[in-house]
Specification:
By secondary structure, this protein is of the alpha/beta class. 28% of the residues lie in helices and 20% in strands. The chain starts with a helix and ends with a helix. The structure holds 6-phosphogluconic acid. It comes from Commensalibacter intestini. Belongs to the glucosamine/galactosamine-6-phosphate isomerase family. 6-phosphogluconolactonase subfamily.
């Protein structure tokens, strides 16, 4: 247990109060994140490190670095459990699948025990798939109720969409109102697939939330979320721990 949680108590961080770190470019951003994850893994001193991975394209560079010779042999993969923050309801072999992206960029290159990788199941019935994943999380957590000071995840990596979504918490979808379930699903109006996603309560049960955002195209939405607190889904992200915006200069400016 990081003493940071005890200091923060239940204050925690929001998307607006989180720390901001701007790295020179996407490569430096990936290097910072990889070294940070290695540090957190080492800090756990043999206890499992639970990471919820983000989908989308931005984190691929990080995953490729973690799977590279520079990191793959240094990470205690037998103590790291990889979860997913969200998933598209397509087969894991589909190029639109977040699992497919993580498998190609990371899993295919590391020696991680099969039991340590927790893909979101894909079923025709997304509600059933979400129930299955939630049950898996609850079994690992050891309770069906999230408790303050006992975070479900050590690290939750999140991306940021141009419409202010994060994970698969899209504007105007009912999952934004979910206060009890840990996993739910949505049918975003402007996304081709049904989606499964961690909910706000599950994401909040974390030691660290790291928004990983890069590119000039995201600079405006970051300002609107952080500084103007506009009612985007990503603006409502909270954690009982620390929230960090890990940006490249193109997205984060000076
Ligand atoms: O499944 C997904 O697509 C992600 O979880 C989603 O929330 C993503 O992080 C943002 O859409 C940003 O995507 P890019 O990194 O591709 O800009």
């Amino acid at each position: 247990m990081s003493d940071k949680i005890e200091k923060n108590g239940d204050k925690g961080h929001t998307a607006q109060t989180g720390y901001v770190l701007v790295l020179s470019d996407a490569t430096a951003q990936a290097e910072y994140l990889a070294s940070s994850i290695l540090h957190h893994a080492e800090e756990k001193q043999g206890e499992p490190l639970r990471i919820a991975l983000s989908g989308g394209s931005t984190p691929k560079r990080l995953y490729e670095l973690l799977g590279s010779s520079e990191y793959s042999d240094r990470m205690p993969w037998d103590k790291i459990h990889l979860f997913f923050g969200d998933e598209r309801m397509v087969p894991h072999t589909d190029s639109d699948s977040n699992f497919h992206m993580v498998k190609e960029s990371l899993l295919a290159h590391i020696d991680i025990p099969f039991r340590n990788v927790h893909p979101m199941p894909v079923l025709d019935d997304p509600a059933k798939a979400a129930e299955i994943y939630q049950a898996e999380l609850q079994a690992i957590y050891g309770s069906k109720t999230l408790e303050k000071g006992k975070p479900l995840f050590d690290i939750v990596l999140l991306g940021l969409g141009g419409d202010g979504h994060t994970a698969s918490l899209f504007p105007g979808t009912p999952v934004l109102q979910e206060k009890d379930k840990w996993v739910s699903w949505s049918q975003p109006s402007d996304a081709p697939h049904k989606r499964m996603t961690l909910t706000y309560p599950a994401i909040a049960s974390s030691r660290f939330v790291m928004f990983v955002v890069s590119g000039e195209s995201k600079a405006q939405i970051i300002r609107e979320v952080r500084d103007e607190d506009k009612p985007y889904p990503s603006a409502a992200i909270k954690t009982e721990g620390e929230l960090h915006w890990i940006l490249d200069r193109a997205a984060g400016g000076e």
